Amino acid sequence: MINLLHIISDKNSFPCDQCDSSFKWKASLKNHVKSVHSRNETFSCEICAAVYNTTTALISHKRYKHPSIQHRCHTCGKVFSIKNDLARLIQTHIGGRVLKYFCKVCEKGFPTKNHLKTHMISHQETKDHQCEVCMKRFSYSSTLIRHKRSHSGELPYPCPDCNESFGRSDRLKDHMKEH
After folding, report:
1. What is the dihedral of CA 33, 38, 40, 46, to 10 degrees?
2. Is 114 exposed, middle or buried (CB count within 10 Å of its CB: 0-12, 13-18, 19+)?
3. H helix or E strand, kind and range, residue 91
4. What's the pLDDT band for 5 if we cut at 50, 70, 90?
5. What is the 8-class DSSP label of residue 97?
6. Residue 8's closest CA among 23, 19, 30, 20?
């Protein structure tokens, strides 16, 4: 497991080993290396077919080149040019949770700094928890445990109102809303 104190730093302590750039966030360094020094994966704009090396670059492109594309929140009426920005706002409406902390890698929002720090583990390159059935690897032991249920068929979350059971607690919660 990585030491999260080394992911977030007050100074630019993550230098690029391929150029003179330096970054405050380890995730920013990874994005830099991927977008500037690597040409493996590309992301295309569905509006004009422009191609970028990172999702961050694609989002920036859409924000500035296609500002007229509008995504409106049906709850409060705010309008966004980026669908992910709308999704982030919608999350703040759900259950009154306000998401103040956002991941610089994938833009997912979290209500507390600790939730964000825990999430950052999912972006680490080493995934220490491996499924012995299909060999898929996971960052969190809890995710591996949940994944193993897909192989075993275990359904530990029964509905108290009917005969249905679920492999995940969130699926039971969704089901309960329909009763």
Report:
1. 70
2. exposed
3. helix 83-93
4. very low
5. -
6. 23
What domains can be seen in the chain, in order of their start residue? 4-123 (no CATH), 129-176 (3.30.160.60)
Total length of the chain: 179
| Residue 93 pLDDT greater than 60, yes or no | yes
Q: Residue 6 above 60 pLDDT?
A: no
User: Residue 43's closest CA among 31, 55, 32?
Assistant: 55
Structure tokens at 1: 């497991």
Please report, for residues 121, 151, 174, the alpha-carbon distance to residue 131 in angstroms, rounded to integers and kept in the order given: 18, 10, 27
Give the SS3 label for residue 53.
Answer: coil
φ and ψ at residue 171, rounded to 5 degrees: -70, -35
What is the percent of the chain where pLDDT is above 70?
Answer: 86
Q: How far apart are CA 86 and CA 57, in angstroms?
A: 18
